[in-house]
Amino acid sequence: MLCERKGQIEFAPDSSVPHDEQAVAFHQLPPFTTPPYCPQTTAIHAELQRVLSGKQLLLSELPYSLQTLHEQYQRGCIAFEQSIRQHGPRHFQCLRCGNEQFLLFAKLTCFQCKEHDCVYCRKCLMMGRVAQCMPLLRWIGPPFPYPSIKQALQWQGKLTPAQQKASDHLRSLVSTGGELLLWAVCGAGKTEVLFSGIARALELQQRICLASPRKDVILELLPRFQAAFPTVTIAGLYGGCKAQEENAQLILATTHQLFRFKEAFDLLIIDEVDAFPYSYDETLEKAVYKAKKQAALLVYLSATPSRALQRKAEQKKMNAIYIPLRYHGHPLPLPRFQWCGHWKRLLYKKKLPKPLQHWLIKQLESGRQAFLFVPSVTVLQEIVPLLKSIDSTIEGVFAEDPHRHEKVMAFRNGAIKVIVTTTILERGVTIPFTDVAVLGAEEKIFCESALVQIAGRAGRSSEDPSGDVCFFHYGKSNAMQSAQYHLIKMNQRGRHLT
Ligand SMILES: [Zn+2]
Ligand SMILES: [Zn+2]
Questions:
Q1: For residue 100, how far is its CA from the centre of ligand 1 (angstroms)?
Q2: Phi/psi of residue 178, nearest 5 degrees
Q3: Ligand nearest to the CA of 128
Q4: Ligand nearest 96 Cα, by number?
Q5: What domains are defined for the chain?
């Protein structure tokens, strides 16, 4: 796509530019102002309005002719914005994903602008290439009017007093804007706490997004939300899915998908704010701020909020709600620490640490199920064959495992008694009668929040509210101690409630 100058700017395909006129690539245009919105001229393109409201898209993502788009531009409904801004010889900024790292930009011989050094962003390449000659399109006309949906919530369950209090608080904050930390222990039932606030937002014609860093979480939440809000169209957006309902009023998405939105949401809920990769990737943080409307309510959900968030809440710089008690009212199981010697050397010699072996035998006799967390895929591949010699049903599962979902299913239905895993399963999987162990709990990957989450896998159901949590280690780490202290503190807070 090239842009033509005739005193006025006109967006037209390369082929339609007459010979006597000069066409220029988008990023080489002099600064120009978009015409103001004018209601009298051509009608608003309703479908385009729906598709483009709250988004920032490339031309290739919109199935409309340039002529249609140009008409809407002239009417002041669409803005063509720069996608990659150059601030200096080695300083670029991608306006879609916020990337400013020089090494994450590259040059190509471009078929669109015909230049040999057209700059593109590598950081958001998985969403389709954005090069500097491609504008980002945004809807700046009247926003798409979402309906007011009354009585959308059909969920019949009952909340505990602590959940109810949190739920009422959230509901009262919808439409006030600002930030809210919802700090709930693992197993507090925080999803149900969100329902009433979301229902209120739907009533107020708001657009809502719940974003989680993990696709697994989105897949687990989708059916629960669909059951709770049966009359509402809910879109699930995650890597690898064909998103047809991107314009839905209620969206559940992985955090990466937020890059596609701009000033879209009135209520934006970020699940597991402390979880990888969100807490390590500040561009995702930028995506969150970009995707929400200015006056939106931003809700952070976490069992283990970062120190920075905790401080903000303590200093009353943001609203905070605590749910220190699990929905069944029992305290969180506390981890016990078990020294197991130089386990890495033992594994290298194809031997299991004795304390771990005893734990496993007792575990298999008990008839209960167990997670065994290990620090890396390498350790997983070393230990699984050794464990299989004790019980052949034992399986290991890791992020890139092609049989990951089958194995998790087999664990869920009890065919696998003990599952060995890397940190992928630390969240979101709830199975009753499950104990938890960590081998190498002193390793760096097991930070405080990871250990708190792991301990939280045990005792989640009311039929089995406790459970054994054992950290096998070769020297206690600070993170192990902080995790234990964290759980003790939450239990104390919970005791004050009962
Ligand atoms: Zn980018
Ligand atoms: Zn180009």
A1: 9
A2: 95, -160
A3: 1
A4: 1
A5: 2-139 (no CATH), 161-323 (3.40.50.300), 336-497 (3.40.50.300)
